[in-house]
Structures are given as structure tokens and as C-alpha cells.
Amino acid sequence: MTNFGTKIFNTAVSSINAQQGVLAGISNNIANANTPGYSRRAVLLTNQTSGEGTTGLNIGSGVKISDLIRFVDEFTNKTFREAEQTRSFASSKDDLLARVEDVFNLTGTSQTIGSTLTDFFASLNDLSINPSSIELRSNMIERGKDLVNAIQSSYGAVANVQRDIDARIVSDVDAINNLTSQIAELNLKVVQRENSGSLAADERDRRDNLLGELSKKISFTTLELADGSVKVSLPSGLDLVFGSNSRNLEVTTSPTFAGGGSLPPALWGGVPAFIVYNYGSAASPAHVDLTSEIGAGEGSLGGYLQVRGIYDVTDTSPFQGDGILPQIGARIEAITRFLLSDFNTTYLGADEDSITGGHQASSADLNGLAPSIYGFFDFNFAGVKDTDGDGLPDDIGTHAGVTNYSSLLRLTSTDPRSIAASLDLDPADGVTSFAQGDGSNLAQLSDLQRSVKTFTVDNYSFNGTVDQVYVDAVGYVGNEKSKSATNRIVADSNYKLTADRRDSISGVSLDEEFAQLVRFQKAFEASARLIRMGNELLDQIVNLL
Amino acid sequence: MTRITETQIVRNSLALIQKSRSDIAKFSQETSSGIKIARPGDDAANAPTVASLRETINRFDKHKLRIQSASSTLSLQTDVLAQASDLLVRAKELASQGANEVLGAALRESLSHEVFQLRDAMVDLANTKFQGRYLYSGVADDQPAYSPTGTPGYTNSTSQPGSIRYTYNTNAGSDLSNSVYISDDTSITTNTPGNGVFDGAIQALEILGRSLEGYRSTTTAGVPDGGGTAYTFPTDFSEQTQDILNAMTRLDTARTSDIAIERVSVAGKESRILNSTSILESLKSNLIEVLSKTQGADIFESATNLTQAQTALQTSLSVSGSILKISLLDYL
Fold it and tell me: What is the CATH classification number for the domain harbouring B146?
């Protein structure tokens, strides 16, 4: 005969244990309600069957914990990671462009290349009124300095953003290596724990969280293998994490695939960082270039590279990089080269002596002296500037070691008397005659502002006036910034939606947990009451004796 | 039913608060600065227009300043030419007196002194300086337009002023003028080579003075070359009278052709400058209006938006505060 008294005790005890287990699960959920990446869990109960008894009645033997489950939807998690990638990509791009955008201020309160260009050409026209006036000449020199400063500071600002991006790439790649290494370690723990038959809930949560962090940096694909480990690969298939192993990415400015040859120059003068995988050794590296692949993706690295520009190892100019900053730099450089080449060529005047070889300047300053080849605008360079020896400033791009002229731009002279405003009045070859008050060279130079020409700097080509090049730069920056701002808003919104979706599945609801807490607390109290009741029953039986 | 967790509520509340704060920052900036496109990304479609408009307006301002400077030069030229014309009128009066044969050679000689004074005054006018530069020396403006010709001066002259012959400077560039842009496409010359203006007048005054003084003037292609013998009186008295009358004709030609034409030319330039100023003002006014419409913030709209954003923020804070405070825990 079944001893129901004992059964009551056993059932109550099993219930107390089970309810406590559930309450422990609830308390863990509450404790981790704000833990990033935590997925809520549920302790599942099942009734305990006895199968014993002679009466054939299977009343049951109480309750037991059957399983622990994580509320996770892999598809939602994947969508969430992708949204994080896009958000991180859009925000990194937008933040960087906001810094560049300040260079092209439209309020009219600060000097820009556009305003200084206008002021410079106006000062040149002003000098036409009285070409020998020292005051007006000084004004033209000052406006020339303003223009040089505006170009240098604008170019410098763009170049500094590029340099800053290279520094961020280094720290991002370090972070990626750290993350992939941790994911690999967690893979090992997941496999070990789940081989022993228990769910590696904490390890999986932490791994999901790390994958989320990784998705902020870079685009990748994941595949969960049968043993519970996750394979993380770049879109091209290169595995970053496989089982308990991870591959480190490297950042280098001396990639082996350059073959020891020259490397592309960055806007800031150094070598742009390449993201590589080294399949050789530290002592004898052998690099595979991953920059283009990572740059084509999302995450902050994708944003950085698309703004910085992705360089091919064979590029020879900072403006050949495929990205936003090289394009902005090219527009500034186009204005610089116009000043160095076109302005200076006109400044020299026509060839004064067609008999003597090379171009002889036909303009002169107040001292009657002809200007040098780079007569008004010059650049810092120690070597020979007239590389082809033709007497004309048409050598841009041929000076060894000079990768941009904008950062090197300067005025040839700051002496007001040195402005070559006059042109030779004697038509004879080799014989010159100048008038102090002649401003005919100024008239030619003034016409340059309105002359339409094709401005070309590597991949950039624009047909228009020099003023319009600046307006084109404003338009380009505006378009890119506007696109990035819109993308950021969309990405933020999408991130919020996917985060909400993820939270609706995996997030901890305190109200829900409190309700469950009460529910299982009551069950626990009832179980305790059962023991008391069983005790009373036993007492009554004992008292009968 | 979709589960809503506290994290979602916090996230959405913060997003709403952040959006409202961002709007407040934007609209307060618009309201205080009056500008809604401060950077290219604020309105990519209109940013190039704003940049272009700003540069054009700036250029127009510079044109206007230059016009003021050119205008003062032309104004001075107008005064100089009016005085030159007056001098020639006075010279003609003296010539008329001198041509009267009632006057003897001695009285005619006494009139020559004033004529040479008028000639020197005319040379002074031709050598007028503006901002330290000679106004009528072409682009060779560091040299006076007229200076005494050393050798030969006038030969056979007894008086000091009569022996001096003034000729226009032959320095390179003395026959050229400078062009100045007074708008994007229009330029004017602000100086005129003085020989076309004053040669006739100075030569006429010198011939008249020498005739009254008692000397012929020989010419080469109509220009006195410094030669000429003394009249013999009374034999050459009629010839002297005829030379005085010829000089009067030269004075008339100088006044009514050279000086008058230049006065008309200067007046024409002043008129063009006036027109340019007016057009620039009008264009600038239109451009400022376009710029204002494109870049400027509608203060009332911005202020309204600001108020709305503030209300939205207050509502967000209030709602978030209320919702986040409510928990099942409070009722357990």
C-alpha cells in the first residue's frame, strides 16, 4: 500500500526545490536586466512521474526542473548585428564629415578659400586703379597671404582628418583582434560545456555580445557549427574565427605586396595604412591586402576607409584614393595648381624674346625686374622647380617627393614693390621698357578669374572657372555630408527597430519577472504549507496511539 | 502580443528626448543667427548656390569700393578740364586784345607775360597729381606729363618764360592708359594720356605768347619745333597780327576739340560708373534677397519650431518620467 503521507512530504520537497530553482532563474534574469547581450532565460519544470503504487493510481511524485532555455532568435540577432554594423558605419562617416564640413563654412563669418579668392582678385583689380601705389600693392600681398593661408588650413584640415582616421584604423584593428580572440576562447568553452550536456547559456550570451561589438567595427558572416562553435569570416571567406582559433589582422605602412617599391602617399604626407593578413611570420611577413574588402563593407572601419580613401598599392598620388577626402583634397589642389601654373604663367607675360631659347618674362615689378618662374605663388621645394627648363611654371607634378602642392604653397615675395604689374612696352626681342604706372599685366591676371578651363587633378576633372571649382567643392562636401546624415538617421531608426525586436524576444521585462516571482513564490509557500499539513496529519496519527 | 521591456522604454524615451534636444539646438541656432544653412550638409541642394551668391555679393562690394576710388579720379579730371577750359577762354581774351593793331609792339609784348603765366598754369593742370601719381602721364605716371625741353628750348627769346618750351613726356607707357573693372564685365580707363588733351592748348599758348612777345614760331607738322625768328617792326607788324589771329584759332581748336572732347569722355565715364553703381546696387539687392530666402531662417518659423521642440521635450520628459516610474514592484 502506498504511503501517501511520505508522498506528500516528497512531493512538497520536490516542489520547494523546483520553485526555488525557478526563483533562482528569475533572480538571475532580474540581476542581468541591464547586462548588454544578456538573453533572458527560463527554468522549465516538468511533473515527476512515480509509476509506483499497487492501486494502479499514478498520482505523481511532484515536480522537477527539466531544462533551462535561452530566449534567442538567431535570425533576429543577425539582423540586429547588421543594423549595428550599418549604424556604426553611418555614424563614423557622418562624424568625420562634420569635421571636414567646417572648412566650407557658409556663414560668411570666417575666411574660406572662396572668400579669399574673391578678395584676392578684387585686390588685383583695385591695384589697376593705381598700379604703382605701395598701399594697393601691400593690400594685394595681404590678400594673397590670406588666400595661401585659407588653402593651407583647408587642405591641412582635410589631411588631418585622414591622418586621424589612420590612427583610428590601428585602434579598431587592435579591438577586432581582441574581440576575435575572445570569441575563439568562448567557442572552446561553449563546446566543452555543451559536450558535457549542459547549455552554455552564459558563454553564448557573452559570445553574442562580442559578435555585436565586432559588428560595430567590421562586416562579417557567421555560421554556427554542429559543435556549438561559431565561425566568423570576412565576406571573401577568410576566417577570422574558426573553432578555438582566431586570425589577427594587421595594419601596416610597408605591405609586402608592394614588392619593396614606392607606396601611395596620403594627403597628410605619410603612407596610408593598409589592413592586411600576414600569412608569413613576424620576421618574414607575407601580406594579403584586405583594405578594399573591409572598406567595401560596413562597421566603423568601412566608414573610416570610405571617408579616408582606399588606395591601391600602385597609386602614386594622394588624390587617386577611392574615397571622399581624396576627392575634397583634389578640389583644393586644383585651385592651388591653378595659382601655381596658370596664374604664374600669365604673371610672366608673353615670351619677351622669341630668339633666346625658353620663355623670357615680359612683365616687371616696380624695380624693373622680371619675376622668377614661379613668380607670385611659389611652393617650398629645395630642388629645381623648372624641371623641363622651358622657363614656364608648367612643371607641376614633376617635382620629386612633392605629392601635393597645397601644403607647400607660399607667396614668392611679400615685398609690395615686387609685384610685376607692368608689361614690356618695347616690342623688340631682348629689349625691355617698362612704365611704373602700367597695370596691363593686372588686367590679364584679372581675366583669369573669369576664364573657363578644365581643372584636372588625377581622377578629378572639372570644366569651369576657378571660383566654380570652390563651389563644386562645397556642393560635393554638402552632398556627401547630407547623404551621411540621412543614412545615419535611417541607420539609427533601423537599429532602434531591430534592438526593440531583439529585446522583445531576449530582453528581460521586470514586470514579467516580478509577476513570475510572485507566482513561484506563492507555489513555494504552498509547498511549505504542504509540509506543515503533512506534519499535522502525522501528529494526529501519532496522537491516536 | 509584442513584449515590451523596460530597456525598450528607456531606449525609446532617450531617443525622443535626444531628438527634442537636437531640434532645440538646431532651432535656437537658427533663431539666434538667422541662418539655416550654416554648413554645406545643412542643405546640400542649396549649399553651392549659397556659396556662389556669397562670393558674388562679396565681389560686387569690392566693385563698389573700386568704383568710389575711380570716381574720385574722374571727379578730379572734371575739375582740371573745367579749369583748363577757363584758362583758354582767358587766353582768347588776351589774344583778342593783342590782335588789335591799335596796340603797339611794346603793349603786345606786355600781354605776352600773362599768356605765358596762363601757359604755365595749363602745364600745372596737365601735371596734376592724384595719390602721388601724375594724372595725365599715361602709365608712365611717376614722371610729369609736361616738362621743359632743355635743348632746344625756344630760340631767340628774351624773356625767361618765353624761352621755355614744354613737351609731353616720351617715357615708355606715356601713351597708354590703365583699365579698371567696375563690374564683372565692364572696365573703364581711369587715366588719359595728356598729350591728346593738353598738347594743343599748351602749343597754342606758347605760339600766342611768342607772337605777342615778338617772335615767330616755326612748326614741324603743325607742332612748334623751338625755332623762329624775331619780327622786324614796323615791317612785320601785320605778320605779327596774323600770327596772333592764327594762335587764336589754335586756342579755339584746343578748347572746343581737345579739352571739350575729353570733358565729354570723362562725363561719359562718370555716367557709366553711376549706371554701374546703380546696376550693382540693384543686382546686389536682388542677390541678397535670394540669399536671404535660400540661406536665411524664417525667424517666426524657427521660433515656432523652437517652441514646438521645447514642448516636445517637456512632453517627452514628463511621459518618460511617468512611464519609467511605474513598476509592478510598487504594487507588490
Answer: 1.20.1330.10
Query: What cell was used for A494?
Result: 533601423
Subunit contact B181:A472, Cβ cutoff 8 A:
no
CA distance B291 to A57: 93
Beta strand A230-233 with A239-242: parallel, antiparallel or unpaired?
A: antiparallel
CB proximity B257 to A under 8 Å: no
Put simply, the answer to whether B180 touches A105 (Cβ < 8 Å) is no
Residue B44 lies in a domain: no
Question: What DSSP letter does each residue of A362-424 carry, written as one string?
Answer: -EE-TTSPPP-SS-SEEE--SS-S-TT-SSSS--TT-STT-S-SGGGEEES---GGG---EE-
Classify A18 as helix, strand or coil: helix
Check if the beta carbon of residue B243 is closer than 8 Å to that of residue B216: yes
A482 vs B41: CB contact, 8 Å cut-off? yes
Above 70 in pLDDT, residue A339?
yes
Interchain pair A438, B139: CB under 8 A: yes
pLDDT of the residue at B157: 62
Domain range for B141: 55-287
**Angstrom distances, CA of residue A521 to CA of A23, A24, B239:** 7, 11, 144
Count of other CB atoms within 10 angstroms of residue B78: 16
Give the pLDDT confidence of B68-87 residue by residue, as tens digits: 888 999 999 999 999 999 99
Q: Is residue B218 part of a domain?
A: yes
Residue of chain A whose Cα is closest to the Cα of B52:
A471
Q: DSSP H helical segments within A430-509, as ranges?
A: 440-448, 466-506
* Residues in A touching B43 (Cβ below 8 Å): 478, 482
Please indicate if any CB of chain B lies within 8 Å of the CB of A434: yes
Query: Residue A171, Cβ neighbours under 10 Å: how many?
Result: 10
How far does A6 lie from chain B, in Å, by closest CA? Answer: 35
**Residue numbers in A near B70 (CB within 8 A):** 129
Establish if B40 touches chain A: CB-CB under 8 angstroms.
yes
A222 to chain B, closest Cα gap in Å? 26
Quick one: which of A275, A271, A227, A225 has its CA closest to A247?
A275
pLDDT digits (tens, 9 = 90+) for B216-254: 999 999 888 888 888 998 899 999 999 999 999 999 999
HSE toward the beta carbon, residue A384, CA cutoff 13 A:
8
pLDDT tier for residue A53 given thresholds of 50, 70 and 90: very low
How many structural domains does chain B have?
A: 1
Q: Cell 630668339 belongs to which residue? A: A355
ipTM: 0.83
Asked if residue A320 lies in contact with residue A265, where contact means CB atoms within 8 angstroms, the answer is no
Q: Do A474 and B62 touch (CB under 8 A)?
A: no
Nearest chain B CA: its distance from A536 CA (Å): 31
Assess B68–A contact: CB distance below 8 Å, yes or no. Answer: no
The string of pLDDT tens digits covering residues A213-238 is 999 999 999 999 999 999 999 998 99
B242: its cell numbers: 596774323
Residue A471, pLDDT > 50, answer: yes
Query: pLDDT per residue over A282-318, tens digit each?
Result: 889 999 999 999 999 999 999 999 999 999 999 999 9
| Residue B32 forms part of a structural domain | no
| Domain membership flag for residue B86 | yes
Q: Does B10 touch chain A (CB under 8 A)?
A: no
Q: How far is A69 from chain B (nearest CA, A)?
A: 18
Contacts of A509 in chain B (CB under 8 A): 3-6
pTM, 2 dp: 0.87
Q: Give A1-39 pLDDT, tens digit per residue.
A: 567 777 888 889 999 999 999 999 999 999 999 888 899
